[in-house]
Amino acid sequence: MATKYIFVTGGVASSLGKGIIAASLARLLKARGYTVTNQKLDPYINIDPGTLNPYEHGECFVTEDGAETDLDLGHYERFTGVPTSHANNVTTGRIYQNVIDKERRGDFLGKTVQVVPHITNEIKERITALGNTGNYEFVITEIGGTVGDIESYPFIEAVRQLKWTLGRNSIVIHLTYIPYLAAAGELKTKPTQHSVKALQQQGVQPDIIVCRTEKPLTRSVKDKIGLFCNIDGDSVIEDGDVRSIYEVPLKMRDEKLDLQVLKKLEVPIKKDLDLDNWEKFLYKLHNPEREVNVALVGKYVQLQDAYKSITEAFIHAGAELRCKVNVRYVNSENLTADNVDSELGGQSGILVAPGFGTRGIEGKILAVRHARENNIPFMGICLGMQCAVVEFARNVLGYADAHSVEIAPATTHPVIDMMEEQKNISNMGGTMRLGAYPCQVVKGSKAYDIYGSEHISERHRHRYEFNNAYLDDFKAHGMMPAGFNPDSGLVEIVEIPQHPFFVGVQFHPEYKSTAMHPHPLFVAFVNAALTYRP
Ligand code: GLN
User: Please, which contacts does 493-499 make with residues 24 or more away whose CB atoms are closer than 8 Å?
Assistant: First the structure.
Protein backbone atom coordinates (compact mmCIF):
# COMPACT_ATOMS: atom_id res chain seq x y z
CA MET A 1 0.00 0.00 0.00
CA ALA A 2 1.25 3.51 -0.80
CA THR A 3 1.93 5.54 2.33
CA LYS A 4 -1.11 7.50 3.44
CA TYR A 5 -0.59 11.02 4.74
CA ILE A 6 -2.90 12.54 7.31
CA PHE A 7 -2.53 16.22 8.16
CA VAL A 8 -3.92 17.64 11.37
CA THR A 9 -4.53 21.38 11.44
CA GLY A 10 -6.18 23.51 14.08
CA GLY A 11 -8.45 26.53 14.15
CA VAL A 12 -10.42 28.90 16.43
CA ALA A 13 -8.07 28.62 19.40
CA SER A 14 -4.78 27.10 20.42
CA SER A 15 -4.43 24.41 23.10
CA LEU A 16 -7.38 22.38 21.81
CA GLY A 17 -5.32 19.22 21.87
CA LYS A 18 -4.25 18.57 18.28
CA GLY A 19 -1.39 16.48 19.60
CA ILE A 20 -3.75 14.28 21.60
CA ILE A 21 -6.08 13.83 18.62
CA ALA A 22 -3.15 12.94 16.37
CA ALA A 23 -1.79 10.53 18.99
CA SER A 24 -5.23 8.99 19.55
CA LEU A 25 -5.75 8.42 15.84
CA ALA A 26 -2.33 6.79 15.66
CA ARG A 27 -3.30 4.55 18.58
CA LEU A 28 -6.49 3.47 16.79
CA LEU A 29 -4.73 2.76 13.50
CA LYS A 30 -2.09 0.78 15.35
CA ALA A 31 -4.84 -1.14 17.14
CA ARG A 32 -6.11 -2.12 13.68
CA GLY A 33 -2.73 -3.53 12.77
CA TYR A 34 -1.26 -0.69 10.68
CA THR A 35 2.17 0.87 11.04
CA VAL A 36 2.01 4.54 11.96
CA THR A 37 4.26 7.43 12.83
CA ASN A 38 3.41 10.90 14.13
CA GLN A 39 5.19 14.05 13.07
CA LYS A 40 4.94 17.63 14.32
CA LEU A 41 5.77 20.71 12.26
CA ASP A 42 6.35 23.78 14.42
CA PRO A 43 6.12 27.23 12.85
CA TYR A 44 8.60 28.99 15.15
CA ILE A 45 12.08 30.05 14.13
CA ASN A 46 14.08 28.30 16.83
CA ILE A 47 15.95 25.38 15.26
CA ASP A 48 14.49 23.15 17.97
CA PRO A 49 12.83 23.72 21.35
CA GLY A 50 16.04 22.75 23.18
CA THR A 51 16.91 26.38 23.81
CA LEU A 52 13.37 27.42 24.78
CA ASN A 53 12.56 28.24 28.37
CA PRO A 54 10.16 25.56 29.66
CA TYR A 55 7.93 28.41 30.86
CA GLU A 56 7.41 29.40 27.24
CA HIS A 57 6.87 26.08 25.68
CA GLY A 58 6.63 23.36 28.28
CA GLU A 59 9.00 20.44 28.47
CA CYS A 60 11.60 19.63 25.87
CA PHE A 61 11.11 15.97 24.94
CA VAL A 62 14.19 13.97 23.96
CA THR A 63 14.07 11.14 21.42
CA GLU A 64 16.20 7.99 21.21
CA ASP A 65 18.40 9.56 18.54
CA GLY A 66 18.93 12.67 20.65
CA ALA A 67 16.56 15.19 19.10
CA GLU A 68 15.30 17.89 21.45
CA THR A 69 11.66 18.14 20.47
CA ASP A 70 8.22 19.51 21.17
CA LEU A 71 6.34 17.93 24.05
CA ASP A 72 3.69 16.58 21.67
CA LEU A 73 6.23 13.96 20.62
CA GLY A 74 6.02 12.70 24.17
CA HIS A 75 2.27 12.21 23.74
CA TYR A 76 2.84 10.37 20.48
CA GLU A 77 5.25 7.95 22.12
CA ARG A 78 3.18 7.50 25.26
CA PHE A 79 0.08 6.69 23.20
CA THR A 80 1.60 4.54 20.50
CA GLY A 81 4.85 3.17 21.91
CA VAL A 82 6.43 4.01 18.54
CA PRO A 83 9.78 5.79 19.04
CA THR A 84 10.16 9.14 17.30
CA SER A 85 13.35 10.71 15.96
CA HIS A 86 14.88 13.89 14.54
CA ALA A 87 12.68 13.44 11.48
CA ASN A 88 9.49 13.64 13.54
CA ASN A 89 9.77 17.27 14.64
CA VAL A 90 10.66 20.02 12.20
CA THR A 91 10.56 23.76 12.86
CA THR A 92 10.52 26.73 10.52
CA GLY A 93 14.02 27.49 11.77
CA ARG A 94 15.29 24.06 10.71
CA ILE A 95 13.61 24.40 7.29
CA TYR A 96 15.15 27.80 6.66
CA GLN A 97 18.55 26.71 7.95
CA ASN A 98 18.58 23.85 5.47
CA VAL A 99 17.46 25.96 2.56
CA ILE A 100 20.02 28.65 3.39
CA ASP A 101 22.78 26.04 3.71
CA LYS A 102 21.84 24.71 0.27
CA GLU A 103 21.89 28.24 -1.12
CA ARG A 104 25.38 28.81 0.29
CA ARG A 105 26.57 25.56 -1.24
CA GLY A 106 25.27 26.71 -4.60
CA ASP A 107 22.71 23.92 -4.84
CA PHE A 108 20.12 26.23 -6.38
CA LEU A 109 22.35 27.03 -9.39
CA GLY A 110 21.90 30.78 -9.28
CA LYS A 111 18.12 30.73 -8.97
CA THR A 112 16.27 33.21 -6.74
CA VAL A 113 15.47 31.33 -3.54
CA GLN A 114 11.87 31.90 -2.44
CA VAL A 115 9.29 30.79 0.11
CA VAL A 116 7.42 29.15 -2.74
CA PRO A 117 8.79 26.80 -4.02
CA HIS A 118 12.01 26.40 -2.03
CA ILE A 119 10.71 26.57 1.52
CA THR A 120 7.54 24.66 0.66
CA ASN A 121 9.59 22.01 -1.17
CA GLU A 122 11.78 21.59 1.88
CA ILE A 123 8.66 21.17 4.06
CA LYS A 124 7.21 18.60 1.66
CA GLU A 125 10.48 16.68 1.66
CA ARG A 126 10.45 16.55 5.46
CA ILE A 127 6.94 15.10 5.41
CA THR A 128 7.42 12.55 2.66
CA ALA A 129 10.84 11.51 4.02
CA LEU A 130 9.00 9.62 6.76
CA GLY A 131 6.81 7.81 4.25
CA ASN A 132 9.83 7.08 2.04
CA THR A 133 11.50 5.10 4.82
CA GLY A 134 9.03 2.35 3.91
CA ASN A 135 8.42 1.77 7.61
CA TYR A 136 4.98 3.31 7.89
CA GLU A 137 1.63 2.84 6.23
CA PHE A 138 0.39 6.06 7.80
CA VAL A 139 2.23 9.30 8.46
CA ILE A 140 0.23 11.65 10.66
CA THR A 141 1.60 15.20 10.49
CA GLU A 142 0.38 17.80 12.93
CA ILE A 143 0.81 21.43 11.91
CA GLY A 144 1.52 23.55 15.00
CA GLY A 145 -0.32 26.84 15.55
CA THR A 146 -3.72 27.85 14.21
CA VAL A 147 -4.77 28.43 10.61
CA GLY A 148 -4.55 32.06 9.64
CA ASP A 149 -1.33 32.61 11.62
CA ILE A 150 1.17 34.37 9.38
CA GLU A 151 3.89 31.92 10.28
CA SER A 152 1.97 28.79 9.36
CA TYR A 153 1.24 29.87 5.77
CA PRO A 154 4.15 28.00 4.15
CA PHE A 155 3.15 24.82 6.01
CA ILE A 156 -0.47 25.04 4.90
CA GLU A 157 0.70 25.73 1.35
CA ALA A 158 2.89 22.62 1.48
CA VAL A 159 -0.13 20.64 2.70
CA ARG A 160 -2.20 22.03 -0.17
CA GLN A 161 0.39 20.97 -2.73
CA LEU A 162 0.83 17.53 -1.21
CA LYS A 163 -2.89 17.01 -1.05
CA TRP A 164 -3.13 17.84 -4.71
CA THR A 165 -0.32 15.53 -5.80
CA LEU A 166 -1.11 12.67 -3.43
CA GLY A 167 -4.81 12.67 -4.22
CA ARG A 168 -6.57 9.82 -2.41
CA ASN A 169 -3.46 9.11 -0.40
CA SER A 170 -3.88 12.12 1.84
CA ILE A 171 -6.52 13.79 3.96
CA VAL A 172 -6.76 16.81 6.24
CA ILE A 173 -8.32 16.66 9.67
CA HIS A 174 -9.15 20.08 11.06
CA LEU A 175 -9.61 20.48 14.82
CA THR A 176 -11.81 23.34 15.98
CA TYR A 177 -13.73 24.52 19.00
CA ILE A 178 -17.51 24.81 19.38
CA PRO A 179 -18.28 27.22 22.22
CA TYR A 180 -21.46 26.84 24.23
CA LEU A 181 -23.24 30.10 24.98
CA ALA A 182 -25.08 29.54 28.22
CA ALA A 183 -27.24 32.66 27.79
CA ALA A 184 -28.51 31.41 24.44
CA GLY A 185 -28.40 27.76 25.51
CA GLU A 186 -26.69 26.97 22.22
CA LEU A 187 -23.58 25.51 20.70
CA LYS A 188 -22.11 28.00 18.28
CA THR A 189 -20.70 26.76 14.99
CA LYS A 190 -19.74 30.11 13.48
CA PRO A 191 -16.11 30.17 14.70
CA THR A 192 -15.68 26.74 13.13
CA GLN A 193 -17.16 27.93 9.85
CA HIS A 194 -14.76 30.86 9.85
CA SER A 195 -11.75 28.78 10.60
CA VAL A 196 -12.63 26.32 7.84
CA LYS A 197 -13.05 29.31 5.50
CA ALA A 198 -9.56 30.47 6.48
CA LEU A 199 -8.25 27.06 5.53
CA GLN A 200 -10.21 27.06 2.27
CA GLN A 201 -8.83 30.49 1.42
CA GLN A 202 -5.44 28.88 1.49
CA GLY A 203 -6.72 26.23 -0.88
CA VAL A 204 -7.23 23.41 1.59
CA GLN A 205 -10.55 21.64 2.05
CA PRO A 206 -10.67 19.60 5.26
CA ASP A 207 -11.95 16.03 4.94
CA ILE A 208 -12.84 15.56 8.59
CA ILE A 209 -13.61 18.16 11.23
CA VAL A 210 -13.02 17.28 14.87
CA CYS A 211 -14.86 19.58 17.25
CA ARG A 212 -13.73 20.22 20.80
CA THR A 213 -16.89 20.84 22.78
CA GLU A 214 -18.08 20.81 26.35
CA LYS A 215 -21.60 19.69 25.31
CA PRO A 216 -22.58 16.80 23.06
CA LEU A 217 -22.99 17.75 19.40
CA THR A 218 -26.48 16.95 18.17
CA ARG A 219 -26.97 15.48 14.72
CA SER A 220 -28.33 18.79 13.51
CA VAL A 221 -25.23 20.66 14.70
CA LYS A 222 -23.03 18.11 12.93
CA ASP A 223 -25.09 18.43 9.75
CA LYS A 224 -24.96 22.20 9.95
CA ILE A 225 -21.19 22.21 10.25
CA GLY A 226 -21.03 19.72 7.40
CA LEU A 227 -23.28 21.82 5.17
CA PHE A 228 -21.28 24.99 5.68
CA CYS A 229 -17.93 23.30 5.40
CA ASN A 230 -18.55 21.00 2.40
CA ILE A 231 -18.39 17.66 4.22
CA ASP A 232 -21.02 15.20 5.32
CA GLY A 233 -22.23 15.18 8.91
CA ASP A 234 -20.60 11.78 9.60
CA SER A 235 -17.25 13.40 9.05
CA VAL A 236 -17.89 15.85 11.88
CA ILE A 237 -16.44 14.26 14.99
CA GLU A 238 -17.33 15.19 18.54
CA ASP A 239 -14.37 15.64 20.88
CA GLY A 240 -15.99 16.13 24.27
CA ASP A 241 -14.53 16.47 27.75
CA VAL A 242 -12.95 13.36 29.25
CA ARG A 243 -11.51 12.39 32.61
CA SER A 244 -8.06 11.86 31.22
CA ILE A 245 -6.31 12.34 27.90
CA TYR A 246 -5.92 8.56 27.71
CA GLU A 247 -9.67 8.27 27.19
CA VAL A 248 -9.53 10.22 23.94
CA PRO A 249 -8.69 7.17 21.77
CA LEU A 250 -11.87 5.50 23.03
CA LYS A 251 -13.89 8.65 22.36
CA MET A 252 -12.49 8.75 18.86
CA ARG A 253 -13.32 5.07 18.41
CA ASP A 254 -16.91 5.74 19.51
CA GLU A 255 -17.09 8.59 17.03
CA LYS A 256 -15.60 6.29 14.35
CA LEU A 257 -12.74 8.62 13.53
CA ASP A 258 -10.55 5.71 12.45
CA LEU A 259 -13.27 4.32 10.15
CA GLN A 260 -13.81 7.72 8.58
CA VAL A 261 -10.08 8.02 7.96
CA LEU A 262 -9.84 4.55 6.40
CA LYS A 263 -12.88 5.21 4.23
CA LYS A 264 -11.60 8.54 2.93
CA LEU A 265 -8.18 7.09 2.21
CA GLU A 266 -9.78 4.02 0.62
CA VAL A 267 -7.84 1.66 2.84
CA PRO A 268 -9.40 -1.77 3.43
CA ILE A 269 -10.01 -2.58 7.08
CA LYS A 270 -7.23 -4.90 8.18
CA LYS A 271 -8.73 -6.11 11.44
CA ASP A 272 -11.07 -5.21 14.26
CA LEU A 273 -9.82 -2.74 16.81
CA ASP A 274 -7.85 -4.40 19.56
CA LEU A 275 -7.88 -2.01 22.48
CA ASP A 276 -8.12 -4.60 25.28
CA ASN A 277 -4.88 -3.60 26.97
CA TRP A 278 -5.67 0.05 26.57
CA GLU A 279 -9.04 -0.45 28.24
CA LYS A 280 -7.41 -2.43 31.04
CA PHE A 281 -4.99 0.44 31.58
CA LEU A 282 -7.87 2.93 31.71
CA TYR A 283 -9.82 0.74 34.10
CA LYS A 284 -6.86 0.60 36.48
CA LEU A 285 -6.28 4.33 36.07
CA HIS A 286 -9.86 5.22 36.90
CA ASN A 287 -10.37 2.69 39.69
CA PRO A 288 -7.49 3.17 42.09
CA GLU A 289 -7.54 1.21 45.32
CA ARG A 290 -5.23 3.52 47.24
CA GLU A 291 -3.54 6.90 47.14
CA VAL A 292 -0.08 8.23 47.72
CA ASN A 293 1.38 11.73 48.00
CA VAL A 294 4.64 12.58 46.34
CA ALA A 295 6.42 15.90 45.95
CA LEU A 296 7.99 17.02 42.71
CA VAL A 297 10.59 19.61 43.63
CA GLY A 298 11.58 21.91 40.80
CA LYS A 299 11.70 25.51 39.72
CA TYR A 300 9.28 25.42 36.79
CA VAL A 301 6.30 24.41 38.92
CA GLN A 302 4.05 27.29 37.81
CA LEU A 303 3.70 25.60 34.44
CA GLN A 304 3.12 21.91 34.90
CA ASP A 305 3.72 21.24 31.21
CA ALA A 306 7.37 21.88 32.06
CA TYR A 307 7.41 18.43 33.72
CA LYS A 308 4.96 16.74 31.38
CA SER A 309 6.75 13.42 30.94
CA ILE A 310 7.35 13.06 34.68
CA THR A 311 3.70 13.78 35.44
CA GLU A 312 2.61 11.23 32.85
CA ALA A 313 5.12 8.65 34.09
CA PHE A 314 3.50 8.95 37.53
CA ILE A 315 0.10 8.35 35.92
CA HIS A 316 1.39 5.21 34.17
CA ALA A 317 3.07 3.89 37.32
CA GLY A 318 0.00 4.72 39.41
CA ALA A 319 -2.30 2.80 37.05
CA GLU A 320 0.05 -0.17 37.15
CA LEU A 321 -0.15 -0.20 40.96
CA ARG A 322 -3.86 0.71 41.14
CA CYS A 323 -2.80 3.77 43.07
CA LYS A 324 -3.71 7.41 42.60
CA VAL A 325 -0.49 9.40 42.75
CA ASN A 326 -1.08 12.91 44.05
CA VAL A 327 1.82 14.97 42.82
CA ARG A 328 2.50 18.13 44.78
CA TYR A 329 4.57 20.60 42.79
CA VAL A 330 6.96 22.30 45.19
CA ASN A 331 8.85 25.39 44.09
CA SER A 332 12.47 24.82 45.07
CA GLU A 333 13.09 28.57 45.10
CA ASN A 334 10.86 28.90 48.15
CA LEU A 335 12.36 26.04 50.15
CA THR A 336 14.48 27.08 53.13
CA ALA A 337 16.01 25.24 56.07
CA ASP A 338 13.18 26.64 58.17
CA ASN A 339 10.26 25.53 56.03
CA VAL A 340 11.54 22.35 54.35
CA ASP A 341 10.03 20.10 57.04
CA SER A 342 6.60 21.66 56.76
CA GLU A 343 6.69 22.06 52.96
CA LEU A 344 7.59 18.42 52.43
CA GLY A 345 5.72 17.07 55.44
CA GLY A 346 3.10 14.46 54.61
CA GLN A 347 4.87 13.39 51.44
CA SER A 348 5.66 9.72 50.98
CA GLY A 349 8.15 10.30 48.20
CA ILE A 350 10.32 13.14 46.96
CA LEU A 351 11.38 13.54 43.36
CA VAL A 352 13.92 16.23 42.58
CA ALA A 353 13.47 17.32 39.00
CA PRO A 354 15.83 17.93 36.09
CA GLY A 355 16.82 21.48 35.30
CA PHE A 356 19.48 24.02 34.51
CA GLY A 357 21.17 26.90 36.28
CA THR A 358 21.46 28.37 39.72
CA ARG A 359 17.93 29.47 40.52
CA GLY A 360 16.29 27.22 43.09
CA ILE A 361 19.30 24.90 43.41
CA GLU A 362 19.77 25.23 47.17
CA GLY A 363 16.11 24.35 47.70
CA LYS A 364 16.61 21.18 45.69
CA ILE A 365 19.65 20.28 47.78
CA LEU A 366 17.60 20.86 50.95
CA ALA A 367 14.87 18.57 49.61
CA VAL A 368 17.44 15.83 49.00
CA ARG A 369 18.78 16.19 52.53
CA HIS A 370 15.26 16.01 53.94
CA ALA A 371 14.60 12.78 52.02
CA ARG A 372 17.95 11.24 52.90
CA GLU A 373 17.87 12.03 56.61
CA ASN A 374 14.24 11.06 57.09
CA ASN A 375 14.39 7.86 55.06
CA ILE A 376 11.75 9.16 52.65
CA PRO A 377 11.80 7.45 49.24
CA PHE A 378 13.82 9.64 46.90
CA MET A 379 14.36 9.78 43.20
CA GLY A 380 16.63 12.34 41.54
CA ILE A 381 16.54 12.84 37.81
CA CYS A 382 19.48 14.43 35.99
CA LEU A 383 20.00 17.73 37.87
CA GLY A 384 18.10 16.03 40.72
CA MET A 385 20.72 13.26 40.79
CA GLN A 386 23.48 15.85 40.65
CA CYS A 387 21.91 17.62 43.66
CA ALA A 388 21.90 14.30 45.53
CA VAL A 389 25.62 13.93 44.87
CA VAL A 390 26.33 17.51 45.96
CA GLU A 391 24.23 17.12 49.12
CA PHE A 392 26.04 13.90 50.05
CA ALA A 393 29.43 15.51 49.45
CA ARG A 394 28.57 18.47 51.64
CA ASN A 395 26.78 16.78 54.50
CA VAL A 396 28.30 13.29 54.62
CA LEU A 397 31.77 13.69 53.12
CA GLY A 398 32.08 17.08 54.82
CA TYR A 399 33.06 19.15 51.78
CA ALA A 400 31.17 22.29 52.68
CA ASP A 401 31.60 24.04 49.32
CA ALA A 402 31.03 20.96 47.15
CA HIS A 403 29.02 21.81 44.05
CA SER A 404 28.45 21.26 40.40
CA VAL A 405 30.75 23.40 38.26
CA GLU A 406 27.64 24.45 36.34
CA ILE A 407 26.62 26.47 39.39
CA ALA A 408 29.94 27.15 41.14
CA PRO A 409 32.82 26.99 38.65
CA ALA A 410 35.35 27.86 41.37
CA THR A 411 34.32 25.21 43.93
CA THR A 412 37.22 23.35 45.52
CA HIS A 413 35.15 20.13 45.38
CA PRO A 414 33.69 19.83 41.88
CA VAL A 415 31.81 16.58 42.53
CA ILE A 416 29.78 17.26 39.41
CA ASP A 417 32.12 18.32 36.64
CA MET A 418 31.86 19.26 33.02
CA MET A 419 32.35 16.36 30.64
CA GLU A 420 35.65 16.49 28.79
CA GLU A 421 33.92 16.50 25.39
CA GLN A 422 31.86 19.54 26.45
CA LYS A 423 34.76 21.80 27.35
CA ASN A 424 35.30 23.38 23.95
CA ILE A 425 31.67 23.80 23.02
CA SER A 426 30.35 27.34 22.77
CA ASN A 427 27.00 26.86 20.99
CA MET A 428 24.13 26.14 23.37
CA GLY A 429 21.72 24.49 20.93
CA GLY A 430 21.85 20.73 20.36
CA THR A 431 25.29 20.28 21.93
CA MET A 432 24.55 18.44 25.19
CA ARG A 433 24.97 14.70 25.70
CA LEU A 434 21.68 13.79 24.07
CA GLY A 435 19.65 10.70 23.38
CA ALA A 436 19.97 7.04 24.23
CA TYR A 437 23.15 5.62 25.76
CA PRO A 438 23.71 2.14 27.12
CA CYS A 439 24.14 1.69 30.84
CA GLN A 440 25.67 -1.26 32.63
CA VAL A 441 23.72 -1.89 35.81
CA VAL A 442 25.66 -3.16 38.83
CA LYS A 443 24.47 -6.59 40.01
CA GLY A 444 23.13 -6.56 43.54
CA SER A 445 22.04 -2.91 43.31
CA LYS A 446 18.47 -1.72 43.71
CA ALA A 447 18.54 -0.61 40.08
CA TYR A 448 19.38 -4.17 39.10
CA ASP A 449 16.37 -5.44 41.05
CA ILE A 450 14.18 -2.83 39.42
CA TYR A 451 15.29 -3.30 35.82
CA GLY A 452 15.92 -7.00 36.14
CA SER A 453 18.80 -6.62 33.72
CA GLU A 454 22.44 -5.63 33.56
CA HIS A 455 22.03 -3.96 30.20
CA ILE A 456 19.72 -1.02 29.83
CA SER A 457 19.49 2.01 27.60
CA GLU A 458 18.13 5.37 28.68
CA ARG A 459 17.91 8.86 27.22
CA HIS A 460 20.13 11.73 28.30
CA ARG A 461 20.18 15.50 28.17
CA HIS A 462 22.99 17.09 30.14
CA ARG A 463 26.45 18.65 30.03
CA TYR A 464 27.71 17.77 33.50
CA GLU A 465 28.60 14.47 35.13
CA PHE A 466 29.51 12.72 38.33
CA ASN A 467 33.23 13.38 38.87
CA ASN A 468 34.90 9.97 39.07
CA ALA A 469 37.85 11.42 40.99
CA TYR A 470 35.53 11.27 44.02
CA LEU A 471 34.12 7.82 43.38
CA ASP A 472 36.07 5.97 46.09
CA ASP A 473 35.24 8.66 48.61
CA PHE A 474 31.52 8.30 47.92
CA LYS A 475 31.67 4.51 48.03
CA ALA A 476 33.53 4.53 51.33
CA HIS A 477 30.76 6.63 52.87
CA GLY A 478 27.76 4.75 51.53
CA MET A 479 26.72 6.31 48.24
CA MET A 480 27.17 3.62 45.61
CA PRO A 481 27.35 3.79 41.85
CA ALA A 482 24.75 1.41 40.48
CA GLY A 483 25.15 2.00 36.76
CA PHE A 484 27.96 3.01 34.43
CA ASN A 485 28.29 3.88 30.81
CA PRO A 486 30.16 0.81 29.52
CA ASP A 487 32.34 2.85 27.15
CA SER A 488 33.25 5.94 29.13
CA GLY A 489 32.85 4.73 32.71
CA LEU A 490 30.59 7.70 33.48
CA VAL A 491 28.40 7.10 36.53
CA GLU A 492 24.75 6.97 35.45
CA ILE A 493 23.02 5.78 38.65
CA VAL A 494 23.80 6.38 42.33
CA GLU A 495 22.12 4.75 45.32
CA ILE A 496 22.35 4.72 49.11
CA PRO A 497 21.87 1.07 50.11
CA GLN A 498 21.31 2.03 53.75
CA HIS A 499 18.27 4.07 52.76
CA PRO A 500 14.91 2.39 51.98
CA PHE A 501 14.81 3.95 48.48
CA PHE A 502 17.34 6.51 47.36
CA VAL A 503 18.06 6.45 43.64
CA GLY A 504 19.57 9.17 41.49
CA VAL A 505 19.79 8.78 37.74
CA GLN A 506 21.78 10.92 35.35
CA PHE A 507 19.39 9.98 32.55
CA HIS A 508 15.68 10.70 32.04
CA PRO A 509 13.57 7.58 32.62
CA GLU A 510 10.38 9.63 32.18
CA TYR A 511 10.89 9.87 28.41
CA LYS A 512 10.49 6.13 28.00
CA SER A 513 7.41 5.62 30.14
CA THR A 514 4.31 4.84 28.06
CA ALA A 515 0.72 3.97 28.89
CA MET A 516 1.32 0.34 27.94
CA HIS A 517 4.81 0.15 29.45
CA PRO A 518 5.09 2.13 32.66
CA HIS A 519 8.71 2.79 33.51
CA PRO A 520 10.05 0.33 36.12
CA LEU A 521 11.87 3.07 38.05
CA PHE A 522 8.68 5.08 38.49
CA VAL A 523 6.76 1.96 39.44
CA ALA A 524 9.43 1.09 42.02
CA PHE A 525 9.49 4.64 43.37
CA VAL A 526 5.69 4.80 43.76
CA ASN A 527 5.77 1.36 45.34
CA ALA A 528 8.40 2.53 47.83
CA ALA A 529 6.28 5.61 48.56
CA LEU A 530 3.31 3.31 49.22
CA THR A 531 5.22 1.42 51.87
CA TYR A 532 6.50 4.60 53.52
CA ARG A 533 4.17 6.14 56.04
CA PRO A 534 4.91 9.76 56.93
N1 GLN B 1 22.04 21.16 34.13
C2 GLN B 1 22.49 19.80 34.28
C3 GLN B 1 23.46 19.40 33.19
O4 GLN B 1 23.48 20.01 32.15
C5 GLN B 1 21.33 18.84 34.33
C6 GLN B 1 20.51 18.81 33.07
C7 GLN B 1 19.16 18.19 33.26
O8 GLN B 1 18.67 18.08 34.39
N9 GLN B 1 18.50 17.81 32.18
O10 GLN B 1 24.21 18.48 33.34
Answer: 493/385, 493/439, 493/441, 493/442, 493/445, 493/447, 494/385, 494/388, 494/389, 494/466, 495/445, 495/446, 495/447, 496/372, 496/392, 497/445, 497/446, 499/372, 499/375, 499/378
Ligand 1 binding pocket includes 461 (Cβ within 6 Å)? yes
Q: pTM (2 decimals)?
A: 0.95
**Which pairing describes strands 403-404 and 414-418: parallel, antiparallel, or unpaired?**
parallel
Question: What's the CA-to-centroid distance between 215 and ligand 1, angstroms?
Answer: 44
> Distance (Å, rounded) from C-alpha 41 to C-alpha 26?
16
pLDDT in tens, 320-346: 999 999 999 999 999 999 999 999 999
382 a catalytic residue: yes
d(CA 123, CA 157): 10
**pLDDT tens digits along 275-308:** 999 999 999 999 999 999 999 999 988 777 899 9
Q: Which residues contact 406 (CB under 8 A, 6 or more apart)?
A: 356, 357, 416, 418, 463, 464
DSSP line for 164-190: HHHGGGEEEEEEEEE-EETTTTEE--H
Q: Probe ligand 1: pick from 309, 433, 463, 506, max atoms within 8 Å of CB?
A: 463
Task: Find the largest Cα–Cα distance for the chain.
Answer: 75
